[in-house]
Amino acid sequence: MISGTYTEVNIEADSATMGGVTVEKIEATASDVEAPLSDLMDQPTVTAGQVDGSFVVPYAYFNPYLPEGMTITTENGEPRINGELAVPELGRSVSVSSAGEFSVDGDTLHVTPVDIEVADVPSTWTPWSRPC
């Protein structure tokens, strides 16, 4: 009889849906795994002491967290933030495009626009000027 106790189990998958979000390139290692064969054949129940792993979240997942009118897409494998951004000081919207840098601090993901390109902004406008 197989005991159902495993020191380490490696898990790989192209994609999976977790909490309504489809993630890709899943790689995980579970240690101290309890998976009795009898349970696996009937109602699978697996318990791991620890799981370490990684997966890729598509950039589009972050679109609802961006300012209205902005989206994150992929260009040449890199994130690109594009869209129409409202500028109340000008009383209009402007086309904005930038690369994006992602960083994690604890349980918070930060998206920082870099190499920002702004189209159709009057050359006389400065962030500190206001229309009269």
Fold topology:
Blueprint: E1 5-18, E2 21-34, H1 37-41, E3 47-56, E4 70-75, E5 78-87, E6 92-105, E7 108-118
Describe the structure.
The protein has two domains: 5-56, no CATH class; 59-118, no CATH class. It contains one helix and seven strands, in the order ββαβββββ. The protein has one helix spanning 37-41; strands spanning 5-18, 21-34, 47-56, 70-75, 78-87, 92-105, 108-118. It starts with a strand and ends in a 14-residue tail after the last strand.
Which key phrases capture this entry?
single chain, 132 residues, mainly beta, 2 domains, 4-stranded antiparallel β-sheet, 3-stranded antiparallel β-sheet, 7 strands, 4% helix, elongated
* Mean pLDDT across all amino acids: 83
Low-pLDDT segments, ≥5 res: none
The helix count comes to: 1
How helical, in percent, are the residues?
under 10%
Radius of gyration: 23 Å
Please tell me what the overall shape is. elongated
The count of β-strands is 7
Strand content: over 45%
Based on secondary structure, the structural category is: mainly beta
Q: N-to-C terminal Cα separation, in Å?
A: 84 Å
SSE string: EEHEEEEE
> What about the largest sheet?
4 strands, antiparallel
- In total, the number of domains comes to 2
Strand order of the largest sheet: 4-5-6-7
Summarize the structure.
With 132 residues, the chain is mainly β. 4% of the residues lie in helices and 60% in strands.
